[in-house]
Structure formats: C-alpha cells, structure tokens
Please model this.
Amino acid sequence: MNVFDPNAHIQTIVIVGCGGTGAQVARIVARIVYDMRRARLHTPGILLVDPDIVEEKNVGRQLFTAADAALKLPKAEVVGKRLNMALGLDISWSVESFNAEKHGSRYGSQLVIGCVDNHLARRELHRAQGILIGAGNYRDGGQVVIGNVADPERMHRYIDGVDGKYAYLPKEGLLFPALLEPEAPPLDAQSDLSCAELVLRGEQDVLINDWMACVVGQYVSALLRRQPIRTFASFISLDGMSVRSLPICRDELEPYLLQPASD
Model:
C-alpha cells in the first residue's frame, strides 16, 4: 500500500482550538510526547492556540471545571497548565486567534492540528505551512484529514506518488472546499447553537469529540514515530460505531480533486 512520506522532522505541534475536540487532542498529544520523552526520543514543542474563555456550558462536555468557568479563564491556559503539571511538560499557549504567520514555526517543520468550527479559522489554517490535520464533526460523526498541500495543481502533479511514497497530500480545504466558505444562515434562532449548547439540548453526542481526538492522535503518533501512514482521511460514525479510512491512491484522491484549480 502507498504511504505518506513528507520527510518532515516535526519541531512544533500547534493545536488550534481547545474546546470539545481540541482539549481532548491536547491531552492525547501530551501523552504521546511524554511517552516519547520517557523513551529518550526527540520530542516536539507544543503550542495551544484559542482566544475563548471557559463558560459554564463547557463544563462536563469539555475538560474544564465549574471553577474555570466562574473565573472566566482562557481555555488554552487551563489546558496547558494542567497538562504541564500532570506530565512535567513545557506546553505554551496563546489566547489570540490563530494566525498562520504569527503562530507558525520559524525553526524546522511544524504540524498544525485544527479543531475549529468556523470557516474563517479554517481559512487561516489552510494558509499555514507544514502538515495540517483537520478535524470537524457534526451530531454523531465527523472527519479527520491529514495533508500538506493547498495548491490543487501541485497535488495533481503528484497524485501518483513516487515508488509507493507520497510526499504530498491535500489539506482538508482542498478535499472539502465548502469548509472554507460561510455556512448557510440558520432557519431559526435556535438552530444557530454552539456544539456545547447542542450537547446540553441532547442534539450532539457527548462522546463524538473523544472519538475524533483518538483518530487525530493515531495520525500524530504515526507521524512522530515515523510509522507508515496509509490513509489521508478518516470518517467517524457513532451511529455505526465505525471509522472508515480512505487509502492513499489516485482512485481515492482524484474524485476530490476534480474541481478546477483556483487562480
């Protein structure tokens, strides 16, 4: 089977969004880095980016307490401090919105993990250098995509890889362009609810973020440990209790790349 081989020595992992999925991703990534450090392997730095503060509706669904909400603490700071205390790491954080230039790694290669729920943040993630793992979910399912190319022309040139190895894979915005566009306006006021509010109303599965984070974590672990990555997208379904992943090959990539290249 074909494998993703970007020939990247990851120096920094930037996790964008520390809410339902992002906080769980941070926890898993921190455990991976801790385990690698204990084995005396090279470990990348970790940066958490999220401008949001903890609200009462986040408690229970996300990794926050009622005290965090009462104090109106920044999500990125809470998650970073807790993981540092628990595992003796040196995770850093930013309480600003993600900026591809400002939060990009200046030294070495970077892995950016997007756990956001709006098109403006995804557009900025699409601009980021390095490898992007994008995670997006709905009521009881979602998708995780790993890629490092935003240019459709380049992806078409390398759609067959070389000797079973793919140095380039499309980012989520190239596979699913609608993610970079505004969503249709809600039909009524109650339909414009956050993920946390949907959980409170019983309209989003409380475990979907955990499933998403586990899939993201598997990609991260394989990438950091230089293990084969044979798929470029994984689709999670809680209704069927399944994860369906697409193998890296022309037949699976091409249907997503048929839209004309942008200028």
The domain at 3-257 is CATH 3.40.50.720 (Rossmann fold).
